[in-house]
Design a protein that fits this description.
- Residues 162-384 form the Malic enzyme NAD-binding domain.
- Its cofactor is Mg(2+); Mn(2+).
- One of its GO terms (molecular function) is metal ion binding.
- (S)-malate binds at residues 284, 315.
- With 410 residues, this protein is α/β, with parallel strands linked by helices.
- The protein folds into 3 domains: 31-155, Rossmann fold; 164-305, Rossmann fold, CATH 3.40.50; 316-407, no CATH class.
- The chain has helices at residues 4-13, 31-37, 43-51, 56-59, 87-101, 115-125, 141-152, 160-179, 196-207, 232-235, 246-249, 267-271, 291-297, 320-329, 337-352, 370-385, 395-407; strands at residues 65-70, 104-109, 131-134, 157-159, 189-192, 215-219, 222-223, 255-258, 278-281, 302-305.
- The strands form 2 sheets. The protein has a 6-stranded mixed beta sheet, with helices on both faces. The protein has a 4-stranded parallel beta sheet with strand order 2-1-3-4, sandwiched between helices.
- Helix 6 packs parallel to helix 7 (141-152), helix 8 crosses helix 15 (337-352) and helix 16 packs antiparallel against helix 17 (395-407).
- The longest helix is centred in the middle third of the chain and has 20 residues, at 160-179.
- The structure holds NADPH dihydro-nicotinamide-adenine-dinucleotide phosphate, pyruvic acid and magnesium ion (MG).
């Protein structure tokens, strides 16, 4: 039998190398077509857009086009492997945009690590796109880059590893808390990782009711404590404690949130957790601890990973296609907190209403065809109600429109 490694390389190399290609949407088979698609006809929409830039949404692909942009500094849990080596992931994200939500995406791998230069480069590229999905850019640079791009650009800019991850973690946690009969305000959380994904997940956990004093965060040097020198993002999570290592804070933890690296959670630490522990080991491709090893020492655990080959796939792919679909269709100026919270609620509710709902089904699966029609309209409504939508979409009419789109996908 072939190994996963062999299959993965064959999958990516057979036929036309890579996973995505470009499609032409207009007739170009005759001289008459060509004279519209290219010179002289193409000059007409150019002049219209020059007079009124908003016309780009009418005459070009901009309104349905997202840039999936990385510099390759935090590719999955593989770390700083560089822009080019990150390309398979970016092509993969582009595939999911297209297949799950009908959005065209260009993957752009930029060989630049200086945050200010990266902001300038991405800002200069932005006219091409209706939205920008930042991907696999490491902390703390990602915070600066996203913040400055959001300030400068009037199209949605969204760092998937921060907010996409947080949304799906939020949805999974709401359901895990319900299934284990917990009070979220008393939940004790240990987070492994203090980077892009961790910081955004923890912020969202606070919004969902988790108390800051119940959260212990660890980076590569151990627990974030008030007596350590920390970046401003990490300082917000420092605890006044003598604890040094993750093992020191695992006692009676209700939840382990892993957004760090492979194999960093030990079975002995799972044993220290409260009954019915919630273990989200989300590092990709190799989680902090494999589900079967968690269950070996905690049979009543709720376990999630970022992978497609285990139940409970907590992965930002469960939300970014629908957030961008809603943002593009409602011409939202950004993807704001009410849109993110609407997405959390919609994902959690969809899992709860499913007959499979239970400890091995806390979030819908990525291939669930109900996601596009179930989640997207809720996000668009939140965009409208929170004032960032330039176009109001009636929820029912929009759902019908998405049902038609869904039939053309997957
Ligand atoms: N399932 C999902 O949907 C997603 C999963 N992830 C996963 O989360 C992980 C982190 O991604 P991201 O936040 O973007 O990357 P970042 O580079 O921004 O952050 C990585 C973090 O991991 C920490 N870390 C490294 N080694 C250790 C260690 N031994 N113990 C504790 N913490 C450690 C780093 O510590 P330090 O700050 O000291 O360098 C840093 O805080 C990756 O594995 C990625 O695959 C990310 C996004 C989505
Ligand atoms: C899923 C994802 O975005 C990551 O692991 O980086
Ligand atoms: Mg990522």
């Amino acid at each position: 039998m072939k190994s996963l490694e062999q299959n993965a390389l064959e999958y990516h190399s057979h036929g036309q190398p890579g996973k995505i290609a470009i499609q032409v949407t207009k007739a170009v088979g005759s001289q008459a077509d060509l004279s519209l698609a290219y010179s002289p006809g193409v000059a007409v929409p150019c002049i219209e857009i020059h007079k009124n830039p908003a016309k780009a949404y009418e005459y070009t692909a901009k309104g349905n086009l997202v840039g999936v942009i990385t510099n390759g500094t935090a590719v999955l849990g593989l770390g700083d492997i560089g822009a080019l080596a990150g390309k398979p992931v970016m092509e993969g994200k582009s595939v999911l945009f297209k297949k799950f939500a009908g959005i065209d995406a260009f993957d752009i791998e930029i060989d630049e690590t200086d945050p200010e230069k990266l902001v300038d480069i991405i800002a200069a590229l932005h006219p091409t796109f209706g939205g920008i999905n930042l991907e696999d850019i490491k902390a703390p640079e990602c915070f600066f880059i996203e913040h400055h791009l959001r300030d400068r650009l009037s199209i949605p800019v969204f760092h998937d590893d921060q907010h996409g991850t947080a949304i799906v973690v939020g949805a999974g946690l709401l359901n895990a808390v319900q299934l284990t009969g917990r009070d979220i305000t008393k939940l004790k959380v240990v987070c492994s990782g203090a980077g892009a994904a961790a910081m955004a997940c923890l912020d969202l956990l606070l919004d969902l009711g988790v108390q800051r004093e119940n959260i212990f965060v660890c980076d590569s040097r151990g627990v974030l404590t008030t007596n350590r020198e920390l970046t401003k993002e990490k300082r917000a999570w420092a605890q006044n404690t003598d604890a040094k290592t993750m093992s020191d804070v695992m006692h009676m933890a209700d939840m382990f949130l892993g957004v760090s690296g492979p194999g960093l959670l030990k079975q002995d630490d799972v044993k220290k957790m409260a009954a019915k522990p919630i273990v989200f080991a989300l590092a990709n491709p190799e989680p902090e601890l494999r589900p079967e090893l968690v269950r070996e020492v905690a049979p009543d655990a709720i376990v999630a990973t970022g992978r497609s080959d285990y139940p409970n796939q907590i992965n930002n792919a469960l939300c970014f296609p629908y957030l961008f679909r809603a943002a593009l269709d409602s011409a939202a100026t950004n993807i704001n907190q009410p849109m993110k919270l609407a997405c959390v609620e919609a994902l959690a509710a969809m899992a709860r209403s499913d007959e499979h709902f239970g400890r091995d089904y806390i979030v819908p699966t990525l291939l669930d065809k109900r996601l596009l029609t179930g989640v997207t309209p809720k996000i668009a409504t939140a965009a409208h109600e929170s004032g960032v939508a330039r176009k109001h979409l009636n929820e029912e009419e929009y759902r019908a429109q998405l049902e038609a789109l869904a039939k053309t996908l997957l």
